[in-house]
Design brief:
Chain lengths: ~350, ~525
């Protein structure tokens, strides 16, 4: 199979998946037994039938569900994601304004996460059953099993509120003004503007939430790295490589790592999903105004257009990342090229 | 890069990061408030939420206002005096000559006419509040006459609201605003007014990032007393835990929207001051007056027994606040507060039940929404009601329902007995008429008809709706509250506190039932 064939097949598989996702998101958002009216109107207005009727009409809640879905899909195809009930701005605009914040955080989070996860996995595998292995596995276990909001709160409490060595909630110190918008990434914009002070501040505000995200995803990455590498380390060709007199660093780095990477890359792709989900809680706790924070507010106020918009965005990102992972296999694993 | 270089880069990076905590030079006085943002809009004719009221209360002025801490009195603001016509239909306000907008323009009668008409025709969330207004007339630059559809003694209380903010007509028009009858379709000033203000208040709205932050800067040309803070930043921090750490770390000065449990964390922290204001929610039991629905609980004697059986102090222990005397919110003029509230008397309760023919007790279904409002979960109070009434021989059967379902049964008057809460629609005693026969709660929801009460009470209810003289209102509302305490189908039991916390150096913090917080009266001590 050549690359083009492989690529086309992957793209075709993605299409129905995305349509299915819009349908699932719509169903879930509609079927949960909560009422957007109660969530969005002040309690006193709940006494007023006219206000409620007007609200239903305005947001199309008076129409049957299939009609609501088809209208939504029709608008979506034309690039209109609807208007958020909560912010009263177009969802597309809301997302565009908040996405850079999340990209900034997620990028740092995934870098930390991969470094930590792969690093711990390597240590565990190479020094199997030593104290280093146990230590690395405990860290991984904490990352996997502790609720992410708890990690976030502990980090905030210890490093920000008590020790005062880390920056707190938000993207910048509250009294600082954001740099002029170019990319929307505060760190990049600050550098472009030559403003080191703002750059430092923005970066420092990313540290704690990025570490939280990293801990959250590194657990699974390190476990997979460990088991996958251990398996490879026992292979005959590893013994052969050593027998040839190659240095240990080269044996593990080239023969070992490369061959154990496939499951690791898969799990990193899957972790991206966790990263997005994690960002909802993490951003809320760090009052970090990104997509996750937006999604949290949208969910708690039954803001359907916003929930749909973010779900779709998450789905696109997730599908996109896993698409890239599939493509990476092609290069990592020669067997796929012949199969 | 060799290993030494890597190390150097790392060290430099860490130094860079630590350097950022050296602090930013602070020559301006900044106040930071952390809260749960509810803003739907800052356009006074379109916004109708807690955050909107807090911001517009200082970005604009209203004709009249309330005292800093209550709703018990009407005070002059843009209007320095007013007259009410004999028939109670026309209010004539004379404007303060000194009042100017932030851009220096005079505040004129024309601006008042424009603002109120725009509110009325804009068809925004709060527009219904302008329904009682029939017409407005600018008699001269400083005199405006407002004619109502019918007499409305609560009118002055109503126009204290930030919804009735006076906007600079020229500025709003220049940004696409209109007060024409078709304003709902043609007004385009909403986007401008959501991130800029056009008012005469002590602050100017400088920016709004929805669900993130709102910034106010001081109006240097304010016609009244200059506020202390140069800049006010209102940050959206919906997570209570985040607000708490940010307050402890001193990153925010004020944390709003906390509950009793959360402020308990600050006990013994000298840097933080806890404030326990009064919420405007009255929690109460309602017993259906229709015997076919509530059975024995339609009997006023049984209803009175319920009032004697509740452990009022227990609810105060749980949620703070006060025990109300009646369903009139305790912060209102003439309301019966704790000094005129019931205290628990189980013997009396049992005696009343025996008199009513239930010496061996009886069952009481209790419907309520399974939700939490203002940090108070209904289920906790419902369980307490159950155990309180059990001691008097009433076996409460709890029937929690999903909000919408429970609300539907309540609204349509089909419920048996219920546990609900009420926040005044209008901060005026006339709001209490909802709980009197003919009113929304009493009749629509509870089938308590006007003909069920004696004629003299019917007369008092009619007078309550029209009386505007202070002495007369006091007399009428006192008599009605005394009546409902003995014969009403309600058992109000708690008005919970509304806790919040500030850094210890913040001075002048007062919780207000309408605008939450007046940032213009705050300052920072030593």
């Amino acid at each position: 199979m050549n690359f083009l064939q492989y690529f086309t097949r992957r793209v075709l598989l993605v299409m129905p998946l995305l349509v299915g996702i819009t349908m699932m998101a719509f169903l879930i958002a509609n079927l949960i037994p909560a009422d957007p009216i109660i969530a969005n109107l002040p309690p006193n207005a709940l006494n007023d039938e006219d206000t409620i009727a007007a609200f239903r009409k305005k947001w199309g809640l008076d129409k049957p569900m299939h009609e609501q879905y088809l209208t939504y899909l029709g608008n979506l195809v034309q690039g209109d994601m609807g208007t958020s009930i909560k912010t009263r701005k177009p969802v597309g605009e809301d997302i565009a304004r908040r996405l850079p914040a999340t990209i900034e955080l997620a990028t740092l989070g995934i870098i930390f996460g991969i470094a930590l996860g792969v690093g711990l996995g390597l240590v565990s595998a190479i020094w199997k059953d030593s104290w280093a292995d146990y230590f690395a596995r405990v860290i991984a276990l904490i990352g996997v099993s502790f609720p992410v909001f708890l990690i976030a709160l502990v980090l905030l409490n210890v490093f920000y509120a008590q020790l005062r060595i880390a920056a707190g909630p938000g993207r910048l110190d509250i009294i600082m003004r954001p740099p002029p918008t170019v990319t929307g990434l505060f760190t990049v914009d600050a550098l472009l503007n030559g403003d080191l002070n703002t750059f430092r501040n923005a970066l420092s505000h990313l540290i704690l939430p990025a570490i939280t995200l990293a801990l959250y995803i590194s657990g699974i990455i390190s476990r997979i790295t460990r088991s996958s590498l251990l398996e490879v380390l026992n292979q005959d060709y590893m013994r052969t490589a050593r027998a040839k007199g190659l240095r240990e660093r080269y044996v593990i780095g080239f023969h070992g790592m490369r061959n154990s990477l496939i499951p690791v890359v898969t799990v990193i792709g899957l972790s991206y999903g966790n990263l997005l989900v994690g960002s909802i809680l993490i951003e809320s706790i760090f009052a970090y105004p990104g997509i996750g924070f937006y999604m949290f507010r949208a969910s708690t106020s039954q803001d359907f257009p916003a929930i749909m918009g973010v779900s779709l965005l998450f789905a696109f990102i997730y599908v996109g990342v896993n698409f890239v992972v599939d493509i990476l296999y092609f290069f990592l694993d020669p067997r796929i090229r012949v199969a | 890069m060799n290993r030494r270089n890597t190390l150097l880069v790392l060290v430099a990076l860490i130094a860079l990061l630590l350097g950022s905590f050296a602090g930013v030079a602070q020559d301006e006085k900044v106040l930071v408030i952390g809260h749960t943002e509810t803003t739907d809009a800052y356009d006074p004719a379109n916004g109708f939420t807690g955050t909107t009221h807090m911001v517009n209360h200082v970005a604009y002025d209203q004709l009249v206002t309330f005292p800093d801490d209550s709703a018990a009195e009407i005070l002059p603001k843009l209007a320095d005096s007013w007259e009410i016509s004999e028939d109670g239909m026309t209010y004539t306000f004379s404007l303060n000559q000194d009042a100017v907008f932030a851009n220096g323009d005079d505040v004129t009668a024309e601006d008042v006419v424009f603002s109120f008409n725009r509110l009325k025709y804009r068809d925004g969330n709060p527009s219904f509040l302008a329904d009682p207004i029939d017409s407005l007339e600018a008699i001269d630059d400083d005199t405006v006459a407002i004619t109502l559809v019918e007499p409305r003694p609560s009118f002055l209380s109503e126009i204290t609201s930030a919804v009735f903010s006076v906007t600079n007509a020229d500025v709003v028009r220049a940004n696409g605003g209109t007060d024409a009858m078709d304003a709902a379709e043609t007004d385009e000033a909403g986007a401008y007014l959501d991130s800029n203000s056009a008012g005469s208040g002590p602050y100017i709205l400088a920016s709004w990032e929805p669900q993130d932050r709102t910034e106010l800067v001081r109006n240097e040309g304010y016609w009244g007393e200059q506020p202390y803070f140069d800049r006010v930043i209102i940050i959206n921090m919906p997570e209570a835990a985040t607000k708490i750490v940010a307050l402890e770390a001193g990153q925010i000065d004020i944390a709003l929207d906390l509950n009793s449990d959360q402020v308990a964390e600050f006990e013994g922290n000298a840097d933080i001051q806890v404030h326990r204001g009064l919420s405007n929610w009255t929690h109460f039991i309602i017993m259906n007056t229709d015997e076919s629905l509530s059975g024995p609980f339609a009997d006023p004697k049984v209803q009175l027994a319920v009032r004697y059986a509740l452990d009022y102090d227990g609810y105060k222990t749980l949620w703070g606040g006060v025990t109300p005397g009646t369903n009139m919110w305790v912060g209102l003029f003439s309301a019966f507060g704790e000094d005129r509230a019931f205290s628990r008397d189980l013997d009396k309760a049992r005696e009343l039940l025996a008199e009513a023919g239930y010496p061996d007790g009886l069952d009481m279904p209790l419907e309520y929404p399974d939700t939490t409002i203002g940090g108070v979960p209904f289920s906790t109070n419902a369980q307490k009601i159950q155990s309180d009434l059990a001691e008097a021989g009433i076996n409460v059967i709890l029937q929690p329902g999903e909000m919408q379902v429970a609300l539907e049964r309540y609204r349509s008057g089909d419920h048996t007995n219920g546990y609900w809460l009420w926040g005044p629609d209008i901060l005026d005693p006339v709001d209490f008429t909802s709980f009197l026969p003919g009113g929304k709660v009493a009749t629509e929801r509870n089938n308590w008809q006007l003909e069920d009460v004696p004629e003299d009470i019917q007369g008092l209810i009619a007078r309550a709706k029209t009386a505007s003289d202070t002495d007369e209102r006091l007399e009428v509302y006192t008599a009605l509250q005394e009546f409902i305490q003995q014969y009403g189908p309600f058992a109000p039991f708690n008005v919970p506190e509304q806790p919040s916390a500030t850094r210890a150096d913040i001075e002048g913090y007062i919780f207000h039932p309408h605008w939450t917080l007046d940032v213009a009266i705050l300052s920072r001590g030593m």
